[in-house]
Design a protein that fits this description.
SapC family protein; single chain; 5% helix; mainly beta; SapC; elongated; 74 residues
Length: 74
Amino acid sequence: MANHVLLNNVTHKDLKIDPRYSAAHGNNIASTIIFPNEIEDIQKEYPILFRKDPETNQFLSTVILGFEKTKTCF
């Protein structure tokens, strides 16, 4: 379980960002579900598909982030 805390410059002075490309950081995700309020901004840069979930029969708005064979996050 994640322990969420507010960032501050004293406690987190040694915190660094890992700039490497890695599947562990989610860089192998080719698509993800988006919310309706995100569509206006996302449609400018990425294709959006509406996918029917076979379990619930509901449509999900999905953004395509790349075309390489990778896993999806839903």
